[in-house]
Amino acid sequence: xxxxxIDRITKRFGALTVIPELSLTVPDGEFCVLVGPSGCxxxxxxxxxxxxxxINSGRILIDGVDMSGAEPPERGVAMVFQSYALYPHxxxxxxxxxxxEIAHTPRQxxxxxxxxxxxxLRLSSYLRRKPRELSGGQRQRVAIGRAIxxxxxxxxxxxxxxxxxxxxxxxxxxxxxxxxxxxxxxMIYVTHDQVEAMTLADRIVVMNGGRIEQVxxxxxxxxxxxxxxxxxxxxxxxxxFLKGRVTACANGIATVSLALGSSVDIPVSSPVEIGQEVTxxxxxxHIPFSVEEMSGVFMAKASMVEMLGSDTFIYVRQGEENLxxxxxxxxxxxxxxxxxxxxxxxxxxxxxxxxxxxxxGPKENIAAQPSARAHGKAS
Amino acid sequence: xxxxxxxxxxxxxxxxxLFLVLGIWMVPQVYMISVGLRTPAQAFDxxxxxxxxxxxxxxxxxxxxxxxxxxxxxxxxTVATVAIVVAVASLFAFACAILKLKGTMFLYATxxxxxxVPLASLVLPLAILLKNFGWVNTYIGLIxxxxxxxxxxxxxxxxxxxxDAPKELFEAARVDGCNAWQTYWHVALPLVRPAxxxxxxxxxxxxxxxxxxxxxxxxxxxxxxxxxVPMQYSGLYMANPGALFAVLTIIAIxxxxxxxxxxxxxxxxxxxxxxxx
Amino acid sequence: xxxxxxxxxxxxxxALRRSRAFNPTLYAFALPATLLFVVFxxxxxxxxxxxxxYTKSNAAEAIFAGxxxxxxxxxxxxxxxxxxxxxxxxxxxxxVQMLVGGLLAYFIERHTNALRGFFRTMFFLPVVTSVSVVxxxxxxxxxxxxxxxxxxxKHVGIVMTNSAIGDPKTAIYALIVVNIWQxxxxxxxxxxxxxxxxxxxxxxxxRIDGARGWRLAVHVIVPMLAPATKSLLLLGVIGTLQTFxxxxxxxxxxxxxxxxVFGTFxxxxxxxxxxxxSGAALSVIVLVVALVLSLVQIALLGARLSPxxxxxxx
Lengths: 379, 277, 314
What we know:
The structure holds three protein chains of three kinds.
Chain A (H helix, E strand, L loop, with lengths): L3 E10 L2 E11 L4 E5 L6 H9 L6 E6 L2 E2 L5 H4 L1 E4 L11 H11 L4 H14 L15 H14 L4 E5 L7 H18 L2 E6 L2 H7 L2 E6 L2 E6 L1 H6 L4 H6 L6 E11 L2 E6 L3 E6 L9 E6 L6 E2 L8 E9 L4 E7 L2 E7 L10 E4 L7 E3 L5 E4 L16 E2 L1
Parallel strand pairs in A: 3-8, 3-9, 6-7, 7-8
Antiparallel strand pairs in A: 1-2, 1-4, 4-5, 9-10, 11-12, 11-14, 12-13, 13-22, 14-20, 15-19, 16-17, 16-19, 17-18, 20-21
Helix pairs in contact in A: 3-4, 3-5, 4-5
Chain B lengths: L5 H20 L1 H10 L19 H9 L2 H33 L4 H13 L2 H15 L6 H25 L2 H9 L4 H12 L1 H16 L3 H6 L11 H8 L4 H35 L2
Helix pairs in contact in B: 2-13, 3-13, 4-7, 4-9, 4-10, 5-7, 7-10, 10-13, 12-13
Chain C lengths: L1 H5 L4 H8 L12 H21 L2 E2 L7 E2 L3 H8 L1 H35 L4 H13 L2 H12 L5 H9 L14 H27 L2 H9 L4 H12 L1 H17 L2 H6 L11 H11 L3 H26 L13
Helix pairs in contact in C: 3-15, 4-15, 5-9, 5-12, 6-9, 9-12, 12-15, 14-15
C-alpha cells in the first residue's frame, strides 16, 4: 500500500526520447491500468517505476520518499513479468519464496508465507513441481504468488495475461479481480487490451507515444474521451469517426453537416467557428436504425452484415466514409438492405481538427428507433 | 510381414557401411589391446589378433611401475584445472554478458587471442617463468598455465549461453533483491548448466591429454602425468611391445572410460544450444 | 510493517544493491581471468618478442642482435621444410577431416536411431585417447616387418622397406594420416552440433520443394552448415600450427628433419640446443602467422569458435 508520484520524468534510449516529460499520481490502494498500443511506452514506464530502468530527469516518489535512484527491493515493489520469469531450476515453492530467501527471512516464516500464498492461489499441491511441468495458467499464478508473498508496497503487472489463450484469459481476469479485492494493494497493471483495462481498473491511463492522453475511470474514458485517440482506443468495436463541417452554430447548438450525407445538431459548451472541419464520433452500439423506409431520416445501404449470434454488425459505406452499427436486438438487416440511420445528439462526440473534444453529450437512454423529429435529419 | 522396403534397405546398408568404417577406424585401438594381451613370442607378429591371450604383460607393468601415483598426478592437475577454468570463465562470462561491465568486451576480445596463439610460442617463456617462480615439477606449475589457456574457450561458450538466457529472469532476480553474486550463483549458473557440463568435460579431456607443457615442466619421474610417461616406457620396453602396449592400454583407459560414462551429458551440453530454437 | 520483512537487518547489502550499476568491486568477476591471461599469456608473448632480438647461448650476457635471429631462422633451410610441412598438414588434414567428419555426422545424425549414441561415442574415442598412446601404437603399426600396416598393404602390392615414418619422403604424410585418424571425430562432433541446429522447418520446406536425399544434403544442408565449417577451419588452422606431440613422439622431426614442424623446431632450438634467441624468434614468427591467419579468417568469413551459439562473431 503506497502512493506513487511520478514527477516530470523523461526517458531516453540513446538519441531516442521515448517518454518526454510525464507526470502521474497513483493514490494508495488504487488499481491503475496503463493502456495503449505497442510502443507507447507503458512497459517502459512500468519498468521505470520498478527501478529496472533509470530515468534521465524528474523524480519517482513512493510514499513521498524520493526513490529515483533506488533498486527494486528498496522501493518495495514486486513484479509479475509478461513471460512470468520463473526460475526454471527451482520448484514452485522456492520460486515463490526466493525474494524472502535473499532477504534472509527465517526459514519457518518463509514456509508459512509461501504456504499461505499457495493456498490463496490454489497452488498448494504443486509446490514441489518445476515450472516446466505446469500449464500457462499455473505458471501465471506462481508468478503472482511470488509477487504477493513479498507483501509489496507496489504491485506491478506487465501484460500478465497476454501469453494466455483467450479462454484462460477470461478466467485469469476474474482471478486478478479477486486478488485486487483481497490485497487492497496499490497495483499498476500494463496491458494493450482495453477490455482488461475496462474491467479491472479503478482508473485507466491511456498512453500514446510516451505521453499520457487521458487519465480517468473506465466510464469517464468511455463517455467522455478527451481526444480522438482515446475515443478510438476505448470501446470495441471502435467508435465511428465521420468527417463533417460546422454549418451553423447558435444557442449552444452546432449544426454539423456530415460527408456521409446527413446532418446533426450537437450541443456544445462554447461557440464553434462556422465552416470548421470537425470529426463526429459515435459508437456503433449507439446508432439507432430501422429497416423500414422512413421519410426524413437518413437512408443508406448496408454494404455488409456480420451475424455473430448475440450481436449483428452492419457496415455502411458511403464514398470515403465507413460506418459500423452494432445491433444487439436482432433486427435482421441483411446485406444490401436500405436502412434508416439516425445520430442521436446525446450519443455524438465532436472533435476539432486537432482531435480534441469539443463536446460530449450527456448520456441518457438512447432511443432504439430513429425518429426524424428529435434527431438527425436527412440533408 | 512386409519384405524389406526401400527405406529399410537403405538404413541397413548405411548401418553396414558405418560399421565397416568403424571397424577399420578401431583397428589401432584393437591392435593396442591385442598386442598387450600377447606373449613375448608373438608380440612381433604382424597380425591383428593372436591366440592365446595372456594377462601377464598387464600384471608385470602394473607391478613394476608406479602407475597409481602417476594417475594421481594427472587427476590432481586435471581436476584442479577444470575447477579453476569453470569458475573463472563463468565469472568472466557473467561480468561480460549479464553485468555488462564497461571494458569487458575489450577484455573479452583480448583474451580471445589466447586461442590463436600456438602453445609452441609460449613454452619457452612459460618454462622460464615457472622456473623463476620455483614451480617446476609442481602441480601448480601446470595448473595455472593450463587454466590460463583453458579459460578463453570456456568463456566463449558460457558467454554465448548466458546471452541466450531470457533477460526477464535476471530482472526478476533483481526485483527479488539479489545482488550480483547472488544472481550469478542462484540464477546464471543453473541456467547455463548444459554449457557448464560441456566445458567441464571438454576441459578435462584437453587437460588430461596435454603433452607439451607437461613435458617441459615435469622432469621428475614421480611428478609426471600419465600423458608423458609413455615416452619413457617406449625406451624401457623397446624389446617387449607386449608390455609396452599393456602400459599404453592402461594409460589410455581412464579417459576413454570416463568419456563413455559422460558422453550423453557431453552431447546434451553440446546440443543444448541447438534446442534453444 | 511489511517494509521490515524485506530489509530484515541488512543495510550493507542494500548499499551494495543501490550502487550495483557502478560498483567497481564488480570487476572482481573479471579479475581472475584477466590476471591469468596477463601472467601466463600476455607476459610470455611480450617476453618472447623481446627475447627474439637478443642472442644468448646459456650465458648471462645478452647481445643485442637486432633482427639477426630472424635472419638466421629465415635462411635456415629447415625453416622452409617446416613451412612446407605445415602447409601440407593444413591443406590435407583440414579438408579431409571435414569431409569424413561431415559424412559421418550426416549419416549418423540423419540415418541412425538407436545406435546413434553408440556411433557418436565410438568415433570420438580416438580424440580422447592420449596422444602419446596414439603415437606409440602407430609407430608399431607402421613398423616395416611386424607392423600390421605392412600386413594389409601387402594385399595391395605395396612393400615397405622402411617404416613409413622412417622414409624422408613419406614421413610427413604418415604423420598426417595419424592426425586425421585421431581428430576426425572432433570435426564429426562439430557437424553433429551443426546438424542438430538446423531448423526442421527449413528442411521440411526443402523437401516440399522436392529436394531429397543427396540433393537435400548438397544444396541445403551443406550450405547451412557453413558456420560449423568456418569454425572448423579456424580451429584447424590453429591446431595445425600447434602440432607437436605426434611429431615429437613418432619421428622427432626426422628423419633428417623431413617431418619437422614448428613445435618440434622450437623445442629443439630452445630446449635442446639452448639457443633461446632463435627459439624466441621462431615463436614470434609462428605467433604472427597464427594471428594473421586467424584474423583474416574472422574478417573474411566471420568464423566463430562456439559450436552452439547462434550468429555470433566469436
